[in-house]
UniProtKB/TrEMBL annotation, chain A:
Native source organism of the sequence: Sphaerotilus microaerophilus
Gene3D superfamilies reported in the protein's UniProt record: Formate dehydrogenase/DMSO reductase domain
Listed Low complexity bias regions: 7-17
Region (Disordered): 1-24
InterPro entries (UniProt xref): Electron_transfer_protein (IPR052049), NrfD-like (IPR005614)
Location in or out of the cell: Cell membrane
Protein name: Molybdopterin oxidoreductase
Topology within the bilayer: Multi-pass membrane protein
TrEMBL record, chain B:
NCBIfam families: DsrO
Ranges for domain 4Fe-4S ferredoxin-type: 46-77, 128-157
Coiled coil: none
A Pfam family reported for this protein in Swiss-Prot or TrEMBL: Fer4_11
Cited Gene3D superfamilies: 3.30.70.20
Keywords: 4Fe-4S, Iron, Iron-sulfur, Metal-binding
Protein name listed in UniProt: Hdr menaquinol oxidoreductase iron-sulfur subunit 1
Length: 431, 242
């Protein structure tokens, strides 16, 4: 998909005509390209399944995870996708709950992406279980005190609510129920991300996690990550269809991303600020932010530098950002998200638990030691499989159903080589 | 109790006796050894008292005994292999005083591992022993994240040579069972016996609820403490001399 950004590049210069008319693929080419894209997604999924099978037959000994770092790279992928799945719905919410037309037109795509990301995240989470074959046990035996069990409800609930919401959006007779369904989805995803944050916030004994700020922090992070994913997919889809996103809309959405990224950085700052306030957490914060090796590197260079400051300079710059700039900024936000989660999840476990207060401890079980974790190949492949699933669901969904925004195409008139702004759906080649 | 749990408890006891007994039979509750099929009694609270002054830093008899009793032998690296009990070497930061102590599941009265377990595989018996039902555990490891004592291990590798009375499972989480199969026969946990046999006697096992038991008397008379008392989890294992 990414190969065809050039088709939409003229939007960078606004209404000015392009120097050379872009070449759009013929319908037959386009079908071939769709199958290539779908096959690529399916291949990633197959590789992910293969990795999971390998882990199940050989045990998690083939991963880098241990009895100290029990959640590793797969959880970084899974939690990123689940958090982004909630955040990407924000686009729909801004449309239906706050009545913004530009966003309303994007509600179907936002819903589809939410389902795709949630599916991808759960794919990784489930297949990383020690006993993925017992998923039925998880679905039939609930411990209602467990935050994890609540999350099982929240995830399946989100699937159902978003599916109904999409139906109300796409089926004309159901359109009048769309605002109600949109509101339900809006509320549900708040609860869902609160639930994701709470998975960590309820771990009272862990220095890294027992903080009431985690749930709101994850909600704001979800806004930024979700919108970033949305902008990447939207840009790719416009390019794919030989369409240019109107500059005004693009500018609005990139500004919103800038605001979300800044707000998320603020929440992360407050979180670390409160952690630093508690003296007993100083050792851990020092480790995570200063001398913990890969974790401070990922936090400062990955999350703060690449994932926050660089995209912010792009997104909030006075001159309008082109398609490439938008995709670059959004991709940086996504990368920063992965870096943040890796430091948060893995770094939080690498630091030893303080069990014997007033003593330094050592043992064969890593007491008092920082555990060195290096993700191994099966973990990477499983994570990529989840991304592949989200990619596949999106590609197929967009193709089979009409998920393209239908209101604001600026399509190239191929004969004239001029961009033509149209408002109807007729000008759009069916996505 | 779910039928799973009942099956696990009675199953392990039945295997030990070599007889098959229908699950779910409940006999009158007694304070000590249970017969197969009989439910654990809430009148009992099994616990351990560990005297760190008697624990020898060079000795690992308890760890060996646990490994033999429960069939935990493993060839993989330390950070991945299951360790239900471990020897921790301690140095007091202020004074430099050295001590050592065995560390295992603390059999908390308010166990966070049980609270967070999504399927209910982690559970606490009426007599305070915290166990994992290996037929219901999905291997999510959330209990390992939640345990403040790092008491749990994940089975990272395929298993061989399991003990009939200690069912284990690859991809499941497990931890010290307080040798529930022995306790239910009226015996002591393997680590306690081994420590005594090594001439140390640093681990005392007994019923904390029975005012006349040795452990209850010592806990009453001496300054003992649970680890991480600040968390208020009321562990069944107490430490002396820390
Ligand atoms: S020590 Fe850990 S595993 Fe044992 S009961 Fe307490 S929380 Fe659960
Ligand atoms: S790993 Fe097993 S025992 Fe632990 S929380 Fe998950 S299902 Fe429960």
């Amino acid at each position: 998909m990414s190969a065809s950004f050039t088709a939409a590049a003229p939007s960078e210069v606004g209404a000015a005509p392009p120097a050379a008319p872009p070449t759009l693929p013929s319908p037959a080419d386009e079908v071939r390209r769709f199958w290539a894209v779908a096959a690529f997604g399916a291949l990633l999924v197959a590789i992910g399944l293969g990795a999971a099978h390998f882990m199940e037959t050989h045990g998690h000994a083939v991963t880098g995870m241990s009895n100290q770092i029990v959640w590793g790279l797969p959880h970084v992928f899974a939690i990123f996708m689940i958090v982004a799945a909630s955040g990407v719905l924000n686009v729909a919410s801004v449309g239906s709950v706050f009545g913004q037309t530009v966003y309303k037109a994007r509600a179907p795509l936002s819903g589809l992406l939410s389902l795709a990301l949630l599916g991808g995240g759960l794919f990784v989470l489930m297949l990383d279980l020690g006993r993925p074959d017992r998923i039925v046990v998880a679905a039939t035996h609930y411990n209602f005190k467990s935050v994890f069990a609540w999350n099982v409800f929240l995830y399946s609930g989100l699937f159902a609510i978003v599916a109904v919401y999409l139906w109300t959006l796409m089926e004309r007779r159901m359109n009048r129920y769309a605002p109600a369904a949109g509101l339900a989805a809006f509320i549900w995803r708040f609860v869902l991300t609160t639930g994701t944050g709470s998975i960590f916030a309820f771990l009272v004994a862990r220095q890294a996690y027992a903080s009431a700020l985690l749930a709101p922090m994850f909600i704001v992070l979800s806004f930024a990550w979700g919108l970033a994913v949305f902008l990447i997919v939207q840009s790719a889809m416009y390019a794919w269809n030989g369409l240019a996103l109107p500059v005004a809309i693009q500018r609005r959405m990139t500004r919103l991303l800038g605001i979300f990224v800044a707000a998320a950085a603020y929440m992360v700052l407050v979180y670390h600020g409160t952690q630093l306030y508690a003296t007993k957490l100083h050792g851990f914060e020092r480790f995570l932010l200063l001398d913990g090796g890969v974790y401070p590197l990922l936090f400062w260079v990955g999350y703060v530098g690449l994932g926050t400051l660089w995209p912010l300079t792009l997104l909030l710059a006075p001159s309008p950002l082109g398609v490439r700039g938008t995709v670059l900024a959004a991709a940086l936000v996504v990368l920063g998200g992965f870096a943040f989660l890796y430091a948060f999840i893995v770094g939080g476990q690498a630091w030893p638990l303080d069990i014997f207060s007033g003593y330094t401890a050592s043992s064969t079980f890593m007491d008092g030691q920082v555990d060195a974790y290096t993700p191994r190949l099966p973990e990477w492949l499983l994570g990529l499989g989840g991304l592949g699933l989200a990619f596949l669901v999106t590609a197929v969904g967009v193709r089979v159903l009409r998920f393209m925004p239908q209101d604001d195409f600026a399509r190239f008139d191929l004969a004239a080589g001029q961009p033509v702004a149209t408002t109807g759906t007729t000008a759009a080649r069916k996505g | 109790m779910t039928s799973h749990r009942r099956a696990w408890i009675t199953g392990s006891a039945a295997a030990a006796l070599g007889v098959a007994i229908a699950p779910g039979i409940r006999l009158i509750e007694v304070a000590q050894a249970r017969t197969s099929g009989e439910a654990a009694s809430a009148k009992v609270r099994w616990g351990l008292l560990i005297d760190t002054s008697k624990c020898d830093s060079g000795c690992d008899a308890c760890v060996k005994a646990c490994s033999d009793e429960n069939g935990l032998q493993s060839a993989i690296e330390d950070r991945q292999r299951p360790q239900w009990i471990r020897k921790v070497m301690l140095t007091e930061v202020k004074t430099g005083r050295q001590a050592s102590a065995p560390m295992m599941c603390q059999h908390c009265a308010e166990p966070p591992c049980v609270d967070v377990c999504p399927t209910g595989a982690s559970f606490k018996r009426a007599d305070g022993i915290v166990l994992v039902d290996r037929h219901a555990c999905i291997g999510c490891r959330y209990c390992m994240m939640a345990c403040p004592y790092k008491a749990r291990s994940f089975v990272h590798e395929p298993l061989a040579n399991q003990r009939a009375q200690v069912p284990r499972g690859q991809g499941c989480v497990e931890s010290c069972t307080l040798c529930v199969h022995r306790v239910d026969r009226g015996e002591q946990p393997a680590c306690v016996e081994a420590c005594a046999a090594a001439g140390r006697g640093a681990i005392l096992f007994g019923d904390l609820n029975d005012a006349n038991s040795e452990i209850a008397r010592r806990v009453r008379a001496l300054a003992t403490q649970p680890l991480r008392a600040d968390l208020g989890l009321d562990p069944g294992v107490r430490y002396q001399g820390l």
